[in-house]
Design a protein that fits this description.
Strand content: 15-25%
Number of domains: 3
Largest sheet: 7 strands, mixed
Helix content: 10-25%
CATH architecture of the largest domain: Alpha-Beta Complex
GO molecular function, one term: endopeptidase activity
Keywords: Signal
GO cellular component, one term: outer membrane-bounded periplasmic space
Number of helices: 10
Structural class: alpha/beta
Shape: globular
Distance between the termini: 10 Å
Mean pLDDT: 87
CATH class of the largest domain: Alpha Beta
Strand order of the largest sheet: 12-13-14-19-20-26-25
Radius of gyration: 24 Å
Protein name: PDZ domain-containing protein
Low-confidence stretches: 1-32, 504-518, 523-530, 539-544
CATH superfamily of the largest domain: 2-enoyl-CoA Hydratase, Chain A, domain 1
Pfam families: PDZ_6, Pept_S41_N, Peptidase_S41
Length: about 550
């Protein structure tokens, strides 16, 4: 955020906080009259400034905003005014604003339904929806997750392999000390029944029951039936468990370890989400890697749906170090990514630099703490279709400065786009506002990065969506971080031989989440659709 923008923001906050008062002498200026409620008239093709509709709410909130302990800025308005704000805001900021439809907002039954219509219908070269990342969440959920990584749920990450019958839903991993972990759920357990409803049920009531259990409301209890197969004995065990949704503190960093394999010190870290709560454990992990003087790093991003761009710039530095990035302060060093807005906002385009400093997220400022790094020129990254957004930014950013990335796993989700969270009237909206390119100007990976053998990879490093590596199916039979787990094992084999395993035919992992046919269950919004977003830090034009 520029100084000018910051000053304007502070001024607007001060003005919003001013109220009426009594007393004063006869020469005191009269108070401005209360602003009139904006017009609710919709005119096709005419887009008034979104600012005139901001905070005019159908149900204004009372009390204090937990983010700054100031009164909510909500004013008495209507659902139509909230829709008109969304319409103008989208036309001002949406990356593909010229592809937006302009239906009459009054024809939509709800604000949510209208927001869902405010996106492009265009597709990528493969036929996938170009904007598959349009969503909103409550302001309460946004604050909980943004400040402490808290989300409502059981602490289980579902791997939704088939959304339509025959459905296949398995446990990918559990959060530390969560109800799911304490109940004994294990990676690979297959869900077969929810609240007495077979997972392959097709009637609308049954599908609604399944969705309600997979995306639970806080405090609700649901019963699940799982099947667990013992790979050693081939025996099958079925068990039931009841789980109550709680506020779950996510554990973004798991399974950190260093082991010596074939004479190499190999570091491994499972990183699940780019949120502020993950900064300290990520720093601790890389301090271990630096102290151990590792030779190779395996970064497991297979279930990382993205998050904060500033954290991606930090992680990029912690992998590559000062020698490769030339980073010493938050605004010096090589370009990690270029942030590019629509042509109405091109003056706001900026470069994100590799970041060598820790962030005080309570104050939103960089500190003097220098991040650790093993100073690597190569990294092995484990991926699936759930590897998205800021995770892909790591792949693209590192290749942009000629750090070698070896992909092991499946094609990534394809999201070189991002947004800044936009709160209004108790809801936070995420609408695509910028695209990213690396230091070489490459950002064309809307269909994801694809692992290909080194012999097949004819693209120039950092300028292609094909990345040397191996296509390997996600392995639910072994623990994440275990040397015999298929993706980790393939990475270790590649280190030794430069070749992929003899059998590396990928089976669907989460790619089927993008296929909508028949009675499909909903995709949980966390963490896949959390996406890449920016939260400006104080005193800086951007997060860097």
């Amino acid at each position: 955020m520029s100084n000018l923008h910051l000053a304007a923001l502070l001024l607007s906050i001060l003005l919003a906080g001013c109220g009426g008062g009594g007393g004063g002498n006869d020469n005191s200026p009269s108070l401005d009259p209360q602003p009139t409620t904006p017009s609710e008239i919709w005119s096709a093709g005419v887009f008034p400034a979104s600012s005139q509709y901001k905070d005019y709410c159908a149900n204004p909130r009372q009390g204090l905003d937990p983010q700054d302990n100031e009164p909510y800025s909500d004013k008495v308005g209507s659902a139509m005014l909230e829709k008109l704000w969304l319409r103008s805001f989208s036309h001002e900021t949406y990356l593909w604003y010229d592809e937006l439809p302009d239906p009459n907002p009054s024809t939509f039954d709800s604000i949510a339904a209208y927001f869902n219509a405010l996106k492009t219908s265009a597709t990528t070269p493969s036929g996938k929806a170009k904007d598959d990342f349009h969503f909103s969440e409550s302001y309460e959920d946004y604050i909980k997750e943004a400040q402490s990584g808290v989300v409502a749920g059981y602490g289980v990450r579902w791997a939704i392999i088939n959304r339509t019958p025959p459905r296949l839903i398995r446990v990918a991993y559990t959060q530390d000390n969560s109800p799911a972990e304490l109940a004994g759920l294990q990676r690979g357990d297959e869900l077969v029944e929810v609240d007495g409803v077979d997972i392959d049920a097709t009637d609308s009531a049954s599908v609604a029951t399944i969705n309600a259990a997979l995306q639970p409301e806080l405090g609700t209890t649901h019963t699940f039936t799982f099947v667990r197969t013992n790979s050693q004995t081939s025996t099958v065990e079925q068990y039931d468990v009841s789980l109550t949704a709680q506020d779950i503190e996510t554990t973004p960093v798991q399974n950190v370890h260093v082991q010596t394999i074939n004479g190499r010190k190999v570091g491994y870290v499972q990183f699940n989400q780019f949120i502020s709560a993950g900064q300290r454990p990520l720093i601790n992990a890389f301090q271990m890697f630096e102290n151990s003087d590792i030779d190779e790093l395996v970064l497991d991003l297979r279930y990382n749906g993205g998050g904060l761009v500033s954290m991606a710039a930090q992680l990029g530095y912690m992998i590559a170090g000062s020698a490769n990035t030339l980073a010493t302060t938050p605004d010096t060093g090589r370009v990690f990514s270029q942030t590019i807005y629509n042509d109405k906002r091109s003056a706001e385009n900026y470069d994100v630099k590799f970041s060598a400093r820790a962030i005080d997220w309570s104050e939103r400022v960089y500190t003097d703490e220098v991040l650790p790094s093993p100073e690597l020129s190569r990294v092995y990254i484990l991926t699936t279709a759930g590897t998205c957004s800021a995770s892909e930014l790591i792949i693209n950013g590192l290749q942009g400065i000629d750090v070698e990335v070896v992909l092991i796993g499946d094609q990534t989700c394809g999201k070189p786009f991002g947004f800044a969270p936009a709160p209004n009237c108790g809801e936070v909206y995420y609408t695509i506002q910028f695209k990213n390119e690396n230091a070489k100007g490459f950002g064309s990976y809307a269909d994801g990065f694809t692992p290909v053998s080194a012999a097949q990879n004819n693209g120039e490093l950092g300028l292609t969506s094909q990345v040397s590596g191996c296509l390997v199916a996600d392995d639910f039979e072994h623990s994440l971080g275990a040397a015999n787990e298929a993706l980790f094992s393939a990475a270790l084999n590649y280190m030794d031989t430069g070749e992929c395993p003899p059998v590396s035919q990928p089976r669907p992992t989460q790619a089927s989440e993008y296929i909508l046919q028949g009675p499909a269950i909903s995709v949980p919004s966390h963490p896949l659709r959390g996406g890449m977003h920016i939260i400006p830090l104080k005193g800086m034009k951007n997060e860097q």
